[in-house]
Amino acid sequence: ETGNFKPQFLTTPNLIEASQTIEEWENDVSKDDETENEILCRVLDSKKTKTAKKLALELRKYFEKSTCTESRSEKPTVSQYFVTSIFERCIKEKELWSSETGRLILKTRVLPQRCFPQFFSLALESNDIDLLKDCLFNLNGISESTLVDCLKFILRCNDEVFPTCENTEIWKETNSPCSLSRARYLSLVLSHSINDAFLQTNLRKLHFEETMLFMKFLLCVIKWWSITLQDLLQLEGSVHTLSYTQVLDWAALTLNAHFTQLILIPEAQTLLVNLHKVIAEQITTHEQLDQLDGPLRHFKKHEPLPKNDRISAYSMENIEL
User: Fold this and answer.
1) Fewer CB atoms < 10 Å away: N or C end of the chain?
2) In sequence order, what DSSP letters do the residues of 69-136 get, joined into one string?
3) Which H or E run includes 186?
4) CA 315 to CA 162: how far, in whole Å?
5) Distance separating alpha carbons of residues 4 and 18, to the nearest angstrom
6) Strand, helix or coil at 67?
7) What pLDDT does residue 66 have?
8) By the 8 A CB rule, do 242 and 187 touch?
9) How many CA atoms lie within 13 A of 144 on its CB side?
10) Measuring CA to CA, which residue among 144, 221, 137, 145 is closest to residue 178?
11) Which residues are CB-contacts of 58 (< 8 A; sequence separation ≥ 6)?
């Protein structure tokens, strides 16, 4: 049982306009609902949409007609029931699935969260990195299990799958085990909201080789973190920005999930030593920078420093960084 129950109206009724009467508004709502119901019956009819190309064509034609021209996002005004029904047919008849159908569904912005895992699964099964990017761009509230599945896919797939991206001098300097293009997709996954407990449990799905590659990537990002690197790791058009805190969270949770394995295998011990060294250095630097916090706050607010009789008019202090 899918739980996809037909509502009283397929479409979401538009607000009544000032110039409309109640009767006119009701007629418009009924007309829109009848139109969507008619289109839905057509696209669900196996005789009328036998192929993936035909299904995508019917959807595109209807979505173009139903797109709200006044909206900046230009998303089609279709119901969640309509979108879910189409998607569930694609799940049952996978030969009807195509990247275009997936993008058309994403464009509606009404795909329910319960469909996210299967939607991502179809994108990953078809090695469709562009559709995966669109999913991560447009869907919020992605489960930790799905995020880890995306992480596994990005870690194990060949470099040829990713768009061509020339490694910059900044990225070459990090000596990262990943290409810049792969690193940007990893960063996109890491930039989504997570629940620590759920993520740590799902991170155990990573194989040792995947864990090592991922931890080496995180080590490089932690070591070379800067605003410049943050901008470099962001895919063009993405509203998700990876933060340093998120990098540390993923590193800590991955260590917790694979701690015993990483401790016992000699290959991982060098990685752990290097990670400890980098973190220790950054903690020391942070403690020294923390001494500047008070004076800089006063400077930012254009306030004088607190008066101290023990300090003469001329004073010199050194801060080691």
Assistant:
1) N
2) TTSSS--B---HHHHHHHHHHHHH-GGG--HHHHHHHHHHT---GGGHHHHHHHHHHTT-HHHHHHHH
3) helix 180-190
4) 57
5) 34
6) strand
7) 74
8) yes
9) 16
10) 221
11) 39, 42, 43, 48, 49
Task: Give the H/E segment covering residue 2.
Answer: none
Q: What is the CA radius of gyration of the chain?
A: 26
Q: Whole-angstrom Cα distance, residue 11 to residue 8? A: 9
Angle at CA 86, nearest 5°, toward 85 and 92?
A: 90
Instruction: Supply the DSSP symbol for 157.
Output: S
Mean pLDDT, 10 residues at a time, the chain of 321 residues? 48 62 74 82 89 93 71 66 92 93 92 94 93 94 96 93 83 91 96 95 96 96 94 92 95 95 90 92 80 75 63 57 53
Give the closest residue to 79 by CA, choosing from 137, 37, 22: 37
Cβ neighbours of residue 90 closer than 8 Å, sequence gap 6 or more: 55, 96, 97, 101, 122
| pLDDT at res. 1 | 41
- For residue 15, the SS3 value is coil
Residue 8 confidence (pLDDT): 47
Tokens 């995947």 -> residue: 210
C-alpha–C-alpha distance, residues 318 and 307, integer Å: 20
The amino acid sitting at 26 is: E
Q: What confidence score (pLDDT) does residue 282 get?
A: 86
Element (H, E) at 280: helix 266-289
Name every residue whose Cβ is closer than 8 Å to that of residue 77 and which is 6 or more positions away in sequence: 11, 12, 14, 66, 67, 68
Residue with tokens 């992605």: 142
Maximum distance among all Cα pairs of the chain, rounded to whole angstroms: 91
